[in-house]
Amino acid sequence: MANFAKPSAPRFSVDVYQNEFLPEGGRDVHAIVTVTATGGGSVTRGKPADGTAAVVIMVDCSGSMEYPAEKMRGAREATAAAVDTLRDGTAFAVIAGTHVAKEVYPGQGRLAVADPATRAQAKEALRGLSAGGGTAIGTWLRLADGLLRGSTAAIRHGILLTDGRNEHEEPAVLRATLDACAGRFTCDARGVGTDWEVKEVTGIASALLGSADIVADPAHLTEDFTRMMENVMGKEVADVSLRLWTPVGVEIQYVKQVAPAVQDLTDRRSDSGPRAGDYPTGSWGDESREYHVCVRVPGAAVGQEMLASRVTLVRPATGGEPEAVLAQGLVRAVWTNDVAASTAINPQVAHYTGQAELAQAIQQGLEARKMGDVDGATAKLGRAVQLASVSGNADTARLLSKVVDVVDAVAGTVRLKAKVADADEMTLETRSTQTVRVKKF
């Protein structure tokens, strides 16, 4: 393991956890890659941002935001709190989103620079936000993209709030917009109330490498927006990629982020050289994330060994600076006739394989429930309860208990509840991909 970052930037490290031993002819190699960034700046408004961050807040102002009135009021207050959390020097703007997108502050196609005066002006402008019109989220994102592209900031981020479905725009238009914006800025997405579409909100966050969540009660929006903005203000390094180099004959089966949430990155590969590909991870502050890498190697005889993959964390060339290697780790394969060695499952690999199955079981179970498939829903949600119990995922277990009556958690025996609150079902679906860290062994 090596660290290559400059002293002024967060220091990155890569640790690889795997069972490198394969039986004769064995081909699939699994590894959990832990990436950790430490030593970045503290998150305080008083610390100047030096133009390193630009943020656009997109607020749903469609007609449904007025019913109940607490939603629009909560959105105004939450956005004001987010503006207050901006560090001096951060570029920012606020957009009102309906079936069109309008600049609320500062206007004229530009970003403001956060300081006491501009924060006060932005909060005054928020007083004029009112509800009316439809919902076309792609237009909001396109306007945000245009504003952020005009900034030289390394960290470019959006925060999007909606309370309804994207009814005034074809799904293909939103998909094309997300494809265009991917890699240009990251975005956290939130649904307020219970009349929005979970797959739309989580799809936005997934495509733009951000977080997704439900805020069922508008009274909690301010707390959530403040926490989101604090997280953005803590970012120090942008556009970091996980680069996998593989020898001739080795095939990458998949690359998934597995902590703090499950995110499949396999299809986001971009070639970066002979037998090398980059997988985007977005922006980093002081934090740790884990990735599950699976590669297929050529079969070999007992006693042989090989480098299955080289994992490198890289920051692209920007502003005249060359590409930077931040940290590196190795995935190995060793063939053995020791049955105990070759059949042992690495604890980290086992844990995160279970967490990925847990997310899938919840999503499939809820879909079966919506389709009226009682047996299918019971089986899948029972398996989810079992996996949550085994892995110690108490938060997910608590959310599951609001959808099913748990008879035996260890065995996965459950009964579907006859009545489930919309907020409880949507919370479980939205947070299904959130994982817990592996237990220390």
Task: Describe the protein in words.
It contains eleven helices and 21 strands. With 441 residues, the protein is an alpha+beta fold. Strands 1, 3, 12, 15, 16, 18 and 19 form a seven-stranded mixed beta sheet that branches. Strands 5, 6, 7, 8, 9, 10 and 11 form a seven-stranded mixed beta sheet that branches. Strands 2-4-17-13-14 form a five-stranded antiparallel beta sheet, with helices on one face.
Global structural class: alpha+beta
Beta-strand percentage range: 25-35%
Average pLDDT, rounded to a whole number, is: 94
Sheet bearing the most strands, described? 7 strands, mixed
What is the tally of beta strands? Answer: 21
**Uncertain regions: pLDDT < 50 for 5+ in a row?**
1-7, 42-46
Number of helical stretches of at least 4 residues: 11
User: CA-to-CA gap between the ends?
Assistant: 21 Å
What is the share of helical residues? 25-40%
User: What's the overall geometry?
Assistant: globular
Overall radius of gyration:
23 Å
Note the main attributes of this structure.
seven-stranded mixed β-sheet; 21 strands; single chain; 31% helix; 441 residues; globular
Break the fold down into its secondary structure elements and pairings.
Blueprint: E1 2-3, E2 11-18, E3 21-22, E4 28-38, E5 53-60, H1 69-85, E6 91-97, E7 101-105, E8 112-113, H2 116-126, H3 137-149, E9 155-162, H4 171-181, E10 186-192, H5 198-207, E11 212-215, H6 221-233, E12 237-245, E13 251-259, E14 263-264, E15 270-273, E16 276-284, E17 287-296, E18 305-315, E19 324-335, H7 339-343, H8 347-370, H9 374-391, H10 394-400, E20 404-408, E21 413-416, H11 422-430
Parallel strand pairs: 3-19, 5-6, 5-9, 9-10, 10-11
Antiparallel strand pairs: 1-19, 2-4, 4-17, 6-7, 6-8, 12-16, 12-18, 13-14, 13-17, 15-16, 18-19, 20-21
Helix pairs in contact: 1-2, 1-6, 3-4, 8-9, 9-10
